[in-house]
């Protein structure tokens, strides 16, 4: 709204009042800033504040401390693991620990080698370049990245055809932090150029309880231990989901109570938002329902399941399946997806004798 030119008219006796346009501007600005500040404030600022991933923290601390002691830039770092476990936060912490700037981009945004060259040429010595979803980087940009990571140099091609000229461009030493949810899709030459590779694991309930408690303290929310455990147990082992559920529970407690988050408020809010005691949401239960009620427990192909629940096959395969498989409710076979005994029981149904699984 600040980019739009406007004229305001105030009556003489109302000259000291705030105009409606200004009030609306203030409200929009505060709302935008508030949401932005919430997301930023929940991110840990250092390794000592980062909850969970003890092995990764120990290894990364050694890498960073060694680099600081030698006065050099750290080795390039590859962070792999499912979404929401803190890969972006870890990249921010690396820059913070080294006292340098962080430049952020994503693999899909680097479609041409020129896009990467422009970003690399603007780096300062010691900067941290973070590329999210690095497995989706375009091939020409990836090949340019090889030389940049090893020799801190890139070749810029000027012109086309027989008259094209290669101009070498030196770039200052930097640290590349790559994040990927599919490490297997990285090419061998790119993966081998990272000096340190970390695999981020799902969180247990105890660590997620600490995540929820810390976030509640930052948000100024009073929360009981039982409520924090309840939220943590339904968060699919993912801090991002835990923080999101906490904000929704906070809304419920403020609207329907005195603002304090207790066990009753947490259970009531999670019921309203369709998150059951196993962390399954509406789509997860729809997939299980289609598999069990519609096809007798399977085996069923992912395309058939997607049609049954009205979603794209990629949504079912990438959003629902990983957690359902990890929770032991679906098994995958060459013929399709099969519901386990645990899935039958979760829907309140008696599993047949031929049902897969031990439970």
TrEMBL record:
Where in this protein does the record put region Small ATPAse domain (RuvB-S)?
204-274
A Gene Ontology molecular function term for this protein is: ATP hydrolysis activity
What InterPro entries does this protein's entry cite? AAA+_ATPase, AAA_lid_4, DNA_helicase_Holl-junc_RuvB, P-loop_NTPase, RuvB-like_N, RuvB_wg_C, WH-like_DNA-bd_sf, WH_DNA-bd_sf
Q: Where is this region: Head domain (RuvB-H)?
A: 277-359
Q: Which Gene3D superfamilies does the entry mention?
A: 1.10.8.60, P-loop containing nucleotide triphosphate hydrolases, Winged helix-like DNA-binding domain superfamily/Winged helix DNA-binding domain
Q: Which residues bind ATP?
A: 42-43, 84, 87-89, 150-152, 193, 203, 240
Localization in the cell: Cytoplasm
For this protein, the record's Pfam families field holds: AAA_lid_4 (PF17864), RuvB_N (PF05496), WHD_RuvB (PF05491)
Q: Which residues bind DNA?
A: 332, 337
Source species, domain of life: Bacteria
> What does the entry list as the binding residues for Mg(2+)?
88
What EC number(s) has UniProt assigned to this enzyme?
3.6.4.-
The alphabetical list of record keywords is: ATP-binding, Cytoplasm, DNA damage, DNA recombination, DNA repair, DNA-binding, Helicase, Hydrolase, Nucleotide-binding
AAA+ ATPase domain span: 73-206
Q: Might you name a Gene Ontology BP term for this protein? A: DNA repair
Please provide the record's free-text comment about the domains of this protein: Has 3 domains, the large (RuvB-L) and small ATPase (RuvB-S) domains and the C-terminal head (RuvB-H) domain. The head domain binds DNA, while the ATPase domains jointly bind ATP, ADP or are empty depending on the state of the subunit in the translocation cycle. During a single DNA translocation step the structure of each domain remains the same, but their relative positions change.
Function noted in UniProt: The RuvA-RuvB-RuvC complex processes Holliday junction (HJ) DNA during genetic recombination and DNA repair, while the RuvA-RuvB complex plays an important role in the rescue of blocked DNA replication forks via replication fork reversal (RFR). RuvA specifically binds to HJ cruciform DNA, conferring on it an open structure. The RuvB hexamer acts as an ATP-dependent pump, pulling dsDNA into and through the RuvAB complex. RuvB forms 2 homohexamers on either side of HJ DNA bound by 1 or 2 RuvA tetramers; 4 subunits per hexamer contact DNA at a time.
Q: How does it assemble?
A: Homohexamer. Forms an RuvA(8)-RuvB(12)-Holliday junction (HJ) complex. HJ DNA is sandwiched between 2 RuvA tetramers; dsDNA enters through RuvA and exits via RuvB. An RuvB hexamer assembles on each DNA strand where it exits the tetramer. Each RuvB hexamer is contacted by two RuvA subunits (via domain III) on 2 adjacent RuvB subunits; this complex drives branch migration. In the full resolvosome a probable DNA-RuvA(4)-RuvB(12)-RuvC(2) complex forms which resolves the HJ.
Q: What protein name does the entry list?
A: Holliday junction branch migration complex subunit RuvB
Traced from the root, the source organism's taxonomic lineage reads:
Bacteria, Bacillati, Actinomycetota, Actinomycetes, Mycobacteriales
Name of the encoding gene: ruvB
């Amino acid at each position: 709204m600040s980019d739009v030119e406007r004229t305001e008219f105030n009556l003489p006796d109302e000259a000291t009042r705030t105009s409606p346009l200004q009030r609306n501007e203030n409200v929009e600005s505060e709302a935008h800033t508030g949401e932005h500040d919430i997301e930023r404030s929940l991110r840990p600022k250092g390794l000592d504040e980062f909850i969970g991933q003890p092995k990764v923290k120990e290894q990364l601390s050694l890498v960073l401390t060694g680099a600081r002691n030698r006065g050099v830039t750290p080795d390039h770092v590859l962070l792999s693991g499912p979404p929401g476990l803190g890969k972006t936060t870890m990249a921010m912490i690396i820059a913070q620990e080294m006292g340098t700037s962080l430049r952020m981009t994503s693999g899909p945004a680097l479609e041409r080698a020129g896009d990467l060259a422009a970003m690399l040429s603007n780096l300062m010595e010691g900067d941290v370049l973070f590329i999210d979803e690095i497995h989706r980087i375009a091939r020409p940009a990836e090949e340019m990245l090889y030389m940049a990571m090893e020799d801190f140099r890139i070749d810029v091609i000027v012109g086309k055809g027989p008259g094209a000229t290669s101009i070498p461009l030196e770039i200052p030493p930097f640290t590349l932090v790559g994040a990927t949810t599919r490490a297997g899709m990285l090419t061998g030459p790119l993966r081998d150029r990272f000096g340190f590779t970390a695999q981020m694991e799902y969180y247990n309930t105890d660590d997620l309880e600490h995540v929820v408690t810390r976030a509640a303290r930052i948000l100024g929310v009073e929360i009981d231990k039982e409520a924090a455990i309840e939220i943590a147990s339904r968060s699919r082992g993912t801090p991002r989901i835990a923080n999101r559920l906490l904000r929704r529970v906070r809304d419920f407690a403020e609207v329907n109570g005195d603002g304090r988050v207790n066990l009753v408020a947490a259970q009531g809010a999670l019921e309203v938002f369709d998150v059951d005691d196993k962390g399954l949401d509406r789509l997860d239960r729809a997939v299980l329902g289609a598999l069990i009620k519609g096809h007798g427990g399977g085996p069923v192909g992912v395309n058939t399941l997607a049609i049954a629940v009205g979603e794209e096959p990629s949504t079912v395969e990438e959003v629902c399946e990983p957690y359902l498989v990890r929770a032991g409710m679906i098994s995958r076979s060459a013929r399709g997806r099969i519901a386990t005994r645990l899935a039958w029981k979760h829907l309140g149904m008696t599993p047949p004798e031929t049902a897969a699984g031990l439970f």
